[in-house]
Each structure stands twice: as C-alpha cells, then as structure tokens.
User: Fold this.
Amino acid sequence: MDLEEEWFDVVDQHDQVLRQAPRSEVRREGLLHRATHVWVFLPDGKMLIHRRTATKEEEPLKLTSSACGHLSAGESYEQAAQRELLEELGIKAPISYLHKIPSGPEIGYEHTTLFSCVSSEIPVPDPREISSCEYLSIPELKQLVEKDPSDFTNPFRLFFNWYLESKQ
Assistant:
C-alpha cells in the first residue's frame, strides 16, 4: 500500500462517520465520503472557475468551481475548503457556507458542501490540479452552462442551478 495515499472518512447516508479508509478503497468500493467546493468572487461579483487538468481521475478537462477537493480523514468541511483554496489557488480568505448536496452516483458518492468568499487576491493555480482559470459574471456562466452543460462537472452544475434558483 502507498504510504502517501490519502485517507478519507467513510460516511453513511446521513453523513455520519463510520470509519476511515484509503482513497483507493473508497473509490474501488464506491463508498460514501465527503468533498467541498469553494466559489471565489471578485468584489464586482465575477466568479472564478477553473478547468481541471487532463490527469484528474474524475471529470478531467471539465470546468468547475474555483477550488474543490475531498476531505481528509478527520477534517471538517470548513477546514477542507480553506485548505483547498490555499493549495489550489494560493488564496487565504474568510469563507461562508452556502449549501450542501447529499451524496449520490451523479456526484461520485460524495456528500458535498459549497462555500464562497470574496477576494481580490490574484490566484496562483496549482498546475497539477488546474489547467486554466478565469473570472466570469453570473450571466456569462449561465450562458456557458446552458450552451454546453457537459463541459462542467456534475457538482458544479448542481450547485450553480441551486444558486440561480435561490436568487429568484
């Protein structure tokens, strides 16, 4: 077994921790686990999205949230969101909880939370995770999602649809 392999909390349908397991086992067995997404907004309301690298295990080359990733074993959603924001973009900013999607096959058996922040920091994307990123207005994003929904990750689309509905 790889000593560097990530360990995740395996959870039940109510997001209660059952045990810890290595990433490979969680993926192979389709076990419920946890993930988080962060949307970074500029003060003018534009949102940072990124394109995943071709080497990503799940949904390579798709557009997604500003930062996202799995929770490590024992980590809270908020801790993971802050860590992913720093690791993937080099941004440290206060975050706010927005929404949670329960696990299911369409989102990789992950209970997934969404946080947001407002930051004018210039992102420094991690090239192992992110192939490109850009800021877009909500109307621009809506147009892109409607034009080609398959160009976006499933969790992003679910969160974005929730966001649009919640703003009506």
About this structure: The chain has a mean pLDDT of 95. The chain has one domain: 7-166.
